[in-house]
Amino acid sequence: MADSDSDQESSAEAGTSTEEVLTQEEIDALLTSVEDDGPDGESGGDSGTIVAGIGHVRTFDFARQGQSLSAGLPLLNVIHERFALQLCESIFNTLRCSNNVKFSGARGTSFIDYLHTLDLPTHINFINLTPLKGIALAVFDNNLITNATSSFFGGSMKNELATDKPDFTPSEMRIGNMLLQSVMHDLQVSWKADIDIRPEAKQTETNPDFAQLMNPAEQLLIHRFDIVFEGTQGIFELAMPMAMIEPYREQLSVTYQSEKREDQGTWAPVIIDELKNTSVELSSTLGTAQLSLGEVLKLEKGDIIPLEMSDAITLYAEGIPVFDGEYGAFNDKNAIKIRNKKHRP
Asked: Which domains does the chain have, with CATH numbers?
């Protein structure tokens, strides 16, 4: 009898314990999630599952964090579109060959996974982007460096290159460094309207196995730029740690930024010089007279028209008043002495 009572008490305690572990709402939520799972045990949508006391819970893929971060920073994409235009012009000035630079978007990955995607050799540059914290990577692929060097020295570009190349030649390293200087200058110009960065090169590696200056698990946002030449193309990538971008997320998430750029482009000085050499017609009115139409019709050869002349004479450039002066003579020629410049609102 005692044993029976003991068993009943144990069953009661077990039932109470079970009720404390799972409530009916939690059991219903578990059953709902199992019904919503696909054949492979994965949820068929992004709505997630319902957890009692919390609400909807969705899975988060850290490997795709870079894609969501880039999509939420429209101003960053605008900056890189601006950079692509600057880089296109710089490559033309350096290599003297036509090219087209296209910003192909961004992706997120870890530093170690990114290194595994790089071939040997690759021109890998670690750069600072002060005041942004951390180290970024400026990466030129083998195809870009080799063809840029060939074009610089008058050779032809090839679409298919040797895959067993162990390292870059000294000439190729020189061209790679020239491209790096152009990239850093163009980055500074492109970012200046939003963040005044000051790029600085820290180290260069050509073997991805030796490029171990960052935490292997560091999450990077890789911005890819396709550089298309005649018959071939190369790739430049700017890899920025997400920790570098995060402090400026709010600033880079706006869709419009007021224009603060003072840069006029490399063509502005040329245009200004050409404008300075343009000829303009200068004219002035020495005097005026007022006649009736009848008097004008009676005018004949030899008639004299008295003019009312003012001490001050206005000098016009293409019909626009520019100076005040006075009439006189200089070196036996009629001349106008300029007194002051006309003020124009």
From this structure: 29-59 (no CATH), 66-257 (3.40.1550.10), 279-297+307-341 (2.30.330.10)
